Amino acid sequence: MSIDPFTVFFAALAIFVGWRLWATLGTGGGAPPASAPVRGPFAPPPASPPAAERWRGIAEPGGPLAGGLDAIAAGDPGFDARGFLGGARAAYEMITAAFAAGDLDALRPLLGPETFADFSHAIETRKAAGRKMTTTLVSIDAADLVEAAAQDGAARVAVKFRSKMTSATMDAAGAVVEGSADEIAQHIEVWTFARPFGARDPNWRLVATQAAH
C-alpha cells in the first residue's frame, strides 16, 4: 500500500475531529466505554425499510455491493450507509489533515495498525528531510460506496473519493520541491474502513488506501 502525499489537505479543528467521527462515522452500533465522555448526539437508527428499498441510491438491488451491505447490517443492525458516507467524508478530511500536520497522536486512533505504520514512516521521512507540506482543499466532488463485506468478524467498507486540491511540499528553505501551491489537481482514491462487529469503540478505522481512476 502506497501513500500519495498529494491527498493531504489543511488541518481540521481538534474538537471537530472527535465530534464528527462519533456523530457520523461512529454510528455503527455498540456504545463508547462507560468512562468515555459523550462527544456528540447519537440517534437510534430508523426502522429498517423493506429489503428492496434499504440501499436505494447507494447500491443496485441484488448486486454484490447490496449483498455486502446486507451482510454488514446482519452483523450490525445499527449500520446506516448514508450516515456512514457522511462520516467517511469527514474522516477523509481529518485523516489527511493530521497526516499533513504530522500529527501521529491524532492519526493513531483513526488508522489500522498497518496503515498507521505506513503513515508514520512517511511522516518521519518527511521530517527527517526537513520538508513541510501545504495543501488546500478545493472540493470533495464525490464519495461513493464501491465495496462492502463482512469478513473475519468485522465490517469492511470501501469508499471512492473524488476531490480537487492544491498541494506542495517545501524544503527547509521554503522552496517548492514537489507539487504546486497554485495548480489545482484532481485526486481519485479508494479508502477502505473497517470495524469489528460488537466493538465498544464506535470509530471505524482506515485499513487501506489506493489510487484509482
Topology:
Layout: H1 14-25, H2 51-54, H3 64-75, H4 81-101, H5 104-107, H6 113-128, E1 132-151, E2 154-170, E3 176-196, E4 205-211
Antiparallel strand pairs: 1-2, 2-3, 3-4
Could you walk me through the main structural features you see in this protein, from its secondary elements to its overall organization?
The protein has a single domain (5-42, 58-211), classed as Nuclear Transport Factor 2, Chain: A. The protein is built from six helices and four strands. It has helices spanning 14-25, 51-54, 64-75, 81-101, 104-107, 113-128, and strands at 132-151, 154-170, 176-196, 205-211. A four-stranded antiparallel beta sheet has the order 1-2-3-4. A hairpin with a 5-residue loop joins β2 (154-170) and β3 (176-196). α1 packs antiparallel against α4. The protein is globular. The two termini are 16 Å apart.
Cα-based radius of gyration, to the nearest Å: 18 Å
CATH C-level class is Alpha Beta
Oligomer: single chain
- Which CATH architecture is right? Roll
Number of separate strands: 4
Helix content estimate: 25-40%
Question: How many DSSP helices?
Answer: 6
SSE arrangement, N to C: HHHHHHEEEE
Shape: globular
Distance between the termini: 16 Å
Major β-sheet strand ordering: 1-2-3-4
Biggest beta sheet summary: 4 strands, antiparallel
Beta-strand residue fraction? 25-35%
Mean pLDDT equals 80
Task: Detail the poorly predicted runs.
Answer: 1-24, 26-44
Can you summarize this structure?
The protein is α+β, with helices and mostly antiparallel strands. The chain has helices at residues 14-25, 51-54, 64-75, 81-101, 104-107, 113-128, and strands spanning 132-151, 154-170, 176-196, 205-211.
